[in-house]
Request: fold
Amino acid sequence: MTRAPEARDPLAMVLAAAAAIAWLFTGDFGKEVLSEVAVFAIFAMSLNLLVGCAGLVSLGHAAFFAIGAYAAAAFGVFVNLPLWTAMPLAVAVTAVAAAVAGFFAVRLSGVFFIMMTLAIGQMVYAFFLNSRAFNADDGMAGIGRVDFSFLGLDSGEPAVFCAFAVVAAVAVFFLLRMVARSPFGHTLAALRQNEPRLRSLGCPVLRCKLAAFTLAGALAGFAGALAAQHSGFISPDLAFWTVSGEVLVMVIIGGMGSLSGAALGAALVILLRHHLAGLTEYWVFYMGVLFVLMVLFAEDGVAGRFSWLLRKLHRRGKNV
Amino acid sequence: MNKKRFAAAFLTAVFFAAPAPAAEPVKIGVLLPFSGVYGGLGSDQERALGLGFDTFGRTVGGRGIVLVKADTEAKPAVGLQKARELILRDRVDLLVGIISSAVAGAVRDYVHNAGVPLFITNAGNDLLTGARCSPWIIRTSFSNSQIVRGMGPWLHRRGYRSAFLMAFDYAAGHQMMDAFRDSFTSAGGAIAGEEYPPLGQVQDFAPYLVKLKSAAPDVTFVFFAGPPAIKFAREYAAFGLNRGIPLAAAGWLTSALHIDRQGGEVDGVYSILNYVPSIASAENAAFQRAHKARFGRAGSEYGVAAYDTARLIVDALAAVNADLSDKSAFLRAVHAVSFNGPRGPFRIDPATNNIIQNIYISQVRRSARGGVTAEVLDVLPGMRDQARGCRM
Reply:
């Protein structure tokens, strides 16, 4: 079941082309949806580092998404920092939070790791829900967006912010691909396959897991900081465990272990949500049916099916 | 060649003969909770809004009026998403609704930046027409402090010298109690005590009622709405407090939606609100008659705000001949509208975009037919908010 990162990633190219076409040809609403897809693609890719590479299934990843969002909003609204400064600070805050949470979480494995991350997520949710400083369950409003006026652009325009979000997603994609191909990435893959053996080889297993947990948390915080700017409003719901569950569904539908698959999963879930919600009240039910079918018949997700199809076409081309 | 030219001429003729774009309907997005805890209030307002448009006109200036519903679930994040969908995807001309102040706070910036007029039909947070006011956001319901600040002097005049305050620990609770405290102490009254139970976590008011009893105030003033209101009034009566310490409340405690079910438990309660079904006027009688005929029960303070909003929109659209291309002209028309509605004289204050309206002080009494009704004791005419921190 090893999936060594391929040199070329046709799915990523298809996705990038689809994003470019969507950006060029949709109206303002389409661009708003595309921004949301880009933000959740970053979120899902960051979780993929844990689930797909290191084999650590987290049910509390939304905690870091929310911390990133709240930190960016707090630096922007309370301290009045420009978002170009607030965003990196938010990522740093989230990285610290993820390192602290990870310190406890990575000592556990299997179901206990899942329960621990779930508990951490709900603790963060409860904190924001009850915190006066962050406006409790009313949430925080008045969050601006990064300033592009030095380029003569207004980030309040859906087209500008959408392009920014997509570029950010592409950058995160390359960053995570670099990580996956590095010795560190290979160590994580080995860790997923045979942890005791790695341990007996003298690899600092806990430190590797903690590093992965921190990096994934920081990138989720980056996604959160973008989400806060995109909607201009945040509430404790961002940290709720169902959000963690949803992003896990994105990773699984897209194809665990595939970076572009995680991005595709995010796109699929968000587009389905927008379209199904308009068609039927029971859209959550249909999403559930889709998820069950995917898990039963396409364990490797849409990305896996896609590369299977490509291989098949390639072989047939050779035979003829 | 000839055929083509003919076709071109024909198409041109059709194009110019087509009615002006004004024939397109005015699209109004309705942002209300239809599910969740506030679902009942949302559908109450939606029905009254429909009744209002049926009464005051479904077509204005040659354009029809189309309502597009969206369920906010009374959740801020969902409300914001729905507002964005209504504005960007459905391209609505106006927005109406919003029960929860949290939802209003969430959509405020987006609506303000999009420049789409929003008529708030409930959410009472003072800030929405105060420090966070917007030229595009008009409130046809009330502000929290507008409702209660007449109560302090009135109770003082009646001889009550000390008051105990209680409300849930959230923005609306504090705004109401702050406004009451200011008005009561500046009239010469004293505060015997205050309690703010956590919102949504109280199973039982008993511990707070014990504190209230030992503080022994002349009068109690509270703000509770919905199911907790019914529960509070019940426990207040069950403790026997209603016999010694009169209960005064922001009028949602004995809302028209549930006063029938409260019965003797709320007998004698003083309430202050912008509407009670027993207001004696031809406009109110017409509203109540139409509401009862269509929905089989009395119109509430929630319904009346939506009903008046329909009239405000129809009148303002008529003044600009349903032409919304100049939005500021439409807003000026909104400010110019004034009429006598079920609540009495209605107009929008250009300084804050909040409603200027009568406030009614009433007392719940057993009626001759066996039930209980809130009977109006006093009217505070034309209550108007000061522009606290609001710069348009």
About this structure: Residues 301-319 of chain B form the longest helix (19 residues). Chain B has 14 helices and 15 strands.
